[in-house]
Amino acid sequence: MNLQVTELKIGKVQAAEINWNGAEIKASLNVALEDYRNMVVTEETLKGSKKVMADLNKQAKIIDDFRKSTVKKLNPDIKQFESEAKELVSMIKEARTIIDNQVETFIIKQREEKKVLVKCAIDSVSHEIELKEKYLVRVELKDQYLNSSMTINKVTEDLRVQFNQLLQEQQMEQNKIDTIKVIVDTFNDKLTFKFTPQEFDYLLDRDITEISQVVNSKVQGRLEAEQEELARIEREKQEAIEKAEREAKEQAEREAKKETDRIEREHQEKIKQAEIEKQQAIQKAEAEKQAVLFATEEALQSVDTITPVEQVEDQGQDNPLLELNFSVLDTHERLETLKRYLDQFGYEYHVKEM
Prior knowledge:
The chain is mainly α. It has a domain at 303-354. It has 7 helices and 2 strands, in the order ααααααββα. A two-stranded antiparallel ribbon has the order 1-2. Strand 1 (305-313) and strand 2 (322-329) form a beta hairpin. The radius of gyration is 73 Å and the shape is elongated.
């Protein structure tokens, strides 16, 4: 199918020819306007200059209105020709648009089908060259892959190039991760607050030498800080122990002194109490002695009969002992009073009741 437009031809065309006195007016204006071109506006000529301007505008408008009316008379034939020609162009473009829409729809469908094949090619290459998700999402589905001129084999080759480039980056990153892990593991055994390799992920875009320097500096810094902190804690602990021991010793000394003072007070109180009791006992004994003496005297005075039995002298030289035997005859109550008297003054006696 080949559209062939009939040869375009122009029939009788008579160009518009306008005979008017434009040249005559132009020559006249050149002379007349020369004075106006050289005109200088001053305070005295200002008012007249404004009138001149109004006259010039009026003359220019007369000529312009004449031009417009003349062109308007000549335009109808040209406008009809333009309208007919544009209609023909529109008819051709309408037909082209119908075909263009179908072509566009077909190309879109073709590209969608090609996109499915490209994704299958990506899956196939991903089984050959394993990438982490982080790198797999960076595989580019290039627009040129969808062109009909790009075969699946060519697409697959280009994908392998992409995958291998990303694999190199992945391996470089893994080397960096391994380096970080080795350094961290080396120091973590000595650290209380341990590092995780993930704390240094922000360094993965730097070269491995810089990574080693930064990680070493970080972990070494934390190790030194922890050692200083442990030393400080140990010092404070030792100081606390020493302080507690001092306070315990001081408290024990205070308690011991309090106990000693208490014992001393109690001892002094006991001495005082013993002295008081002693004095009370002496006073009591003296009172009882006096009472016994008094009672004995009364008893002896009232004893009816004391009959000496015999007298035996001890042969000792230092303390001669006089033994008297006598009989007392009286009431029982008075005899008991006599016994208390003898007991009071330490006399030994033997009672033989009749």
